[in-house]
Amino acid sequence: MASSCLSTKPFLGASRTDGLRSGLCYLSSDLLRPSVQISVRNNALKKLLIQAAGSTHGNLFRVTTFGESQGGAVGCVIDGCPPRIHLSEADVQFDLDRRRPCQSQITTPRKETDKCQILSGIYEGVTTGTPITVLVPNTDQRLHHYGEMSIAYRPSHADATYDMKYGVRSIQDPAFVFVHILMYQMFAEGGGRSSARETIGRVAAGAVAKKILKRLTGTERGVMDYLLLEILGYVSQVHKVVLPEDLVDYDALTLEQIESNLVRCPDPEYAEKMIGAIDAVRLKRNSIGGVVTCIVRGCPRGLGSPVFDKLEAQLAKALMSIPATKGFEIGSGFLGTLLTGSEHNDEFFTDDHGKIRTRTNCSGGIQGGVSNGEIINMRIAFKPTATIGIKQQTVTRDKKPIELRALDRHDPCILPRAVPVVEAMVALVLVDELMAQHAQCNLFPINPDLQEPLFLPMQCPSRDG
Questions:
Q1: Total of domains in the chain
Q2: Residue 335 to residues 253, 325, 348, 399: CA-CA distances in angstroms?
Q3: Cβ atoms of 35 and 4 closer than 8 Å
Q4: Residue 188 sits in which domain range?
Q5: Same domain, yes or no: 123 and 95
Q6: Rounded to 5, what percent of the chain is helix, strand, coil?
Q7: Whether residue 21 is found in the same domain as residue 152
Q8: SUPFAM superfamilies from the xrefs (predicted)?
């Protein structure tokens, strides 16, 4: 009887024991006699260790961000983008401009143009299906601002926990850094990978995802009688200034309303209150947080999978990966705990077009982890910006107490610039889920009695657009 087994040499860092063979002692000797053996050399074990990277999002539409706050550049690599999609740097730049620093007196004074360069994946204005690389150079690095921070842990930053995890940081001695600046070797400084500048790669990739969604749902081609998928984020709370939910009509909300003021709040009266709150704390060299609300109109039905890959779970993971996020709600959220089942349940009805709809939307457009076609509404809480201009007590890397005060290059409130980041992460999730839904449930003809087509037939784009 032929049989095979693995060598009992340790794999992926396992201890060198004979536990496997001793644990199988009740099997016959024939079963334990190997006909195939895999030998692993001791010096190769370290190469087999799996290290978590955490810089890639998505399964089919995969995005990897790169770069650091005070490094030479930031950006992303997008893998899995469909071919023959019209795409230009201008498409990406629009959302990058919404995210960039130094937009107004209520954002960080760091002066970055955030001009993007598409280095690969595009030929004659259309995507080729190969990886797309988007690069955004950093132009306003000030490494000398981080001299004291190179030895001290900034309160509520990732400095201490990165040391605890990796045992090394990229902050360099100021004199050492200066030498390397002369050699054009930019080292990761400031917040490094935990800095909000990392989100540039997310926004760039999100802009590509939005382009795909527009193409799929017909909105880019002016088709007005079909699914109009829109992702709209706005600031709904700054510190104690809370925009009442009933003042925003989700069906009529527009990007123009949101972009009409510095804080990206669709209500002019509350926008002024929010701007006043941010400006007041800015003058005190302090910071405040708040909430970004994001809605998805026209989301196709059927996105998301049962159990571990529910759509709200994917959205929560994506949105909670944004720097400074502290909470996520969808639909009724935590307020739903105050309702009874009869108050919370969304009753079904058939509309005038013969579609099954819900009269209320406590579920937030997702039921059983799957989108039902109603508006998806989410709220994401952001903490106050950790970098402030007030002296704080902390300790150095060698555990000595020290007083630390950051220089004034921070957002007094991150919320206005967080809006396009939130939209980007939602777009990335939706494109990935659309691809998965098409591959599993729409690859073959659908059941028209229960299902709807995901998107319109696409034509190959002409060279003139």
A1: 2
A2: 23, 19, 22, 43
A3: yes
A4: 56-441
A5: yes
A6: 35, 20, 50
A7: no
A8: Chorismate synthase, AroC
